[in-house]
Amino acid sequence: MARVTASAIMELIKTTAGGNYISFASGLPDPALFPVDRVRELADAVLTEDGRAALQYGPAEGYPPLRALIAETLRGRGLAAGPENILITNGSQQALDLAVRALLNPGEGVVLENPSYLAAVQAFDSYEARYHVLPLDDGGMVTEALPAALAERPALAYTLPNFQNPTGLTLTGERRAELAEAIAGAGIALLEDDAYHDLRFEGDSLPSVCALAENPRAVYCGTLSKTIAPGLRVGYLCAEASLVVRLGQLKQITDLHTGSFTQRIVYRYCERGWLEPGIRAFCESYRRRRDVLLEALAAELTGIVRWTRPAGGMFVWVTLPEGHHTGALLEQAMRRGIVFVPGASFHPGGGGENTLRLNFVSATEEKIREGIGILSGVIRESLA
Amino acid sequence: MARVTASAIMELIKTTAGGNYISFASGLPDPALFPVDRVRELADAVLTEDGRAALQYGPAEGYPPLRALIAETLRGRGLAAGPENILITNGSQQALDLAVRALLNPGEGVVLENPSYLAAVQAFDSYEARYHVLPLDDGGMVTEALPAALAERPALAYTLPNFQNPTGLTLTGERRAELAEAIAGAGIALLEDDAYHDLRFEGDSLPSVCALAENPRAVYCGTLSKTIAPGLRVGYLCAEASLVVRLGQLKQITDLHTGSFTQRIVYRYCERGWLEPGIRAFCESYRRRRDVLLEALAAELTGIVRWTRPAGGMFVWVTLPEGHHTGALLEQAMRRGIVFVPGASFHPGGGGENTLRLNFVSATEEKIREGIGILSGVIRESLA
User: Fold this and answer.
1) Domains of chain B, first to last
2) Which terminus of chain A, N or C, has fewer Cβ atoms within 10 Å?
3) Is the minimum CB–CB distance between B80 and chain A shorter than 8 Å?
4) Rounded-to-integer distance, Cα A76 and Cα A207, Å
5) Cα dihedral A43, A63, B100, B54 in deg (nearest 10)
């Protein structure tokens, strides 16, 4: 436990929540986009028609109709899923944590991207994981580095194939197949974090890594937090039925089950056919904001810094020339009213001091333009 | 993880949920008592007045007004609590699990009552705990046995002082002070599970064990599951501020935070002054059901078996003469349409094959009478 410390991002969000900052720091979507009226209508319907069950204890594995519905959704992503393969969790964070708790012994090794999702790394840290890190390029995780990492006999591989947090990068189809086969061949567990799957602005959906090779210890994690609302805390995992039984036992000792009321709201939201148009609305808004951010970066910082061009998700990753430290930059930025997350904290393998993460889904288009103006000024001054 | 297996109770609940059994087995309250209309009114108010925040991510430690309100409640139980001492969790089960995860290393010892709460024992099991068990009598945990247990250098003591699950027994005031001082004196962690605190039908409330001695690693766990509704999954823990910071970091990697929407519903429910009358309504109904159960046992089984007379909570504990096995009895009982939980599974220290747990809050008074009639027949036949 000594390795679990406060998340730099969460501390930053707390510090800046009260102020008038333009925030590129958090993973918080703009709440103006949440379907408040629809959730209110459904909350009322659930309590009117099914109120007693909605307030009662429920099964550890989740509300059966929701498990069936998620299974159907995941068959569309190439996964051979039935209800028995699904466990409902409090967001995908709990799916990750349960999987790690079941599949990783203290001190064992984890193969993962460098940089990677901070709260997953913290979950690994809590089990005293050792890291075997793989670099990223425009095609996502560089799989050429995989054989060397697997030779170190890790217990688990962790990947975010779509619009990775923090870089926004997407793993190519070819590399997905390579990764899936190499992991299965090595006989180790695979943890696929696909929280951003539906937030694709362009291009075709790629098959999930878990779908590309037979692996009895493959766990696929997803969520409704990005496509309905995070405050409901409904996510899920998909795995072999026998592993889901095991994870359900663990879920039970962890917190008995995910909320009966909120699971029913999410189920009805999907059942009414509101999910697809809801996703389109999120994507349209996020795509416009991404475009504004990319245009502003191009106008202000071309030839000065590099950045990713994500096909979806929530984040753009900026790389300054070697030797420049974004941690020092943050202080300047905050003094002028903007916040971002310095990239070093996302690097379980170290490095990344010259990188930073920009979220494009919190601020409005106007504020993004204004904020990138300020950021560009700070960067240009520091490089001068 | 190999030690975590399916809960016998949960499996039983699944098996019998579809059928026409009279259930004394589960810990599920009668859903007819849930305040469905009030929750619907509040769900609507929360989404109308505070909808965006209710659907947004929130702080790991919980919704600040709810933390303050719980702190105020706990000051009434003798705990020196401010908002900084409170962490909001998904029911008290998660409070237990987080505390164990932070305070117990694999293989360390736990002092606890024998029998004890099954899902807590399973959480301890998941950390490969060793057990030092203490017997119970009518005054709760027998503290005379404590010095010998503490001499074995355990890391943590776990107790349910009020209307213990599974026995219904309450720890006396004198023993609470003894226990608190002995634990603090030994310098080990104290985990107090007070999930049933408000379900007191008679007699005065006793001070919490955590309030009776200075202990920097004392964690007090409670819940709104028994006093509003379990399906909302809102519980809490109370501990020293620095420990709450640590547990908040752990909560974050576990599932980020407890639902923003449901926390706000619970907060408003309390703020409107509905909690106290709600508790009175639960207690009146549960007290009547307990009385019906105790009267039926007295009429049918006096001199044949022994049972506890709980001053609150949800459970009565029945002890058959030595040498009789309630596991074998269950089969007979189920054939005639009733279910209970055989007591052996609640015993981390072994024993209890001649005991069983009866829940008196699931079935109606009429069904309780009918069910105890059946149970008495089965018991008398088996003893004949």
Assistant:
1) 8-35+277-383 (3.90.1150.10), 36-271 (3.40.640.10)
2) C
3) no
4) 9
5) -20
C-alpha to C-alpha distance for B4 and A101, rounded to whole angstroms: 12
Minimal C-alpha gap between A263 and chain B (Å) = 10
B47 touches chain A (CB under 8 A): yes
> Cα distance from B69 to chain A (closest Cα, Å)?
20
Q: What is the spatial distance between Cα B126 and Cα B359, in angstroms, rounded to a whole number?
A: 26
CA-based nearest distance B53→chain A, Å? 7
Return the pLDDT at B17.
Answer: 60
The whole-number pLDDT of residue B20 equals 80
Mean pLDDT for B326-351 is 94
Residue tagged 């000024």 (tokens): A377
SS3 string, B371-383, reads: HHHHHHHHHHHHH
Enter the pTM of the model. Answer: 0.96
Question: How far is the C-alpha of B382 from the C-alpha of B384, rounded, in Å?
Answer: 6
Beta strands at A86-89 and A235-238: parallel, antiparallel or unpaired: antiparallel
Residue A316 three-state SS:
strand
Cβ separation of B44 and A39 shorter than 8 Å? no
ipTM of the shown complex: 0.95
Structure-token pair, residue B74: 């706990």
- CB–CB of A262 and B258 under 8 A? no
Query: Residue A128, SS3?
Result: coil
- Decide if A376 contacts A332 (C-beta within 8 A): no
Is it the case that residue A110 has pLDDT exceeding 50?
Answer: yes
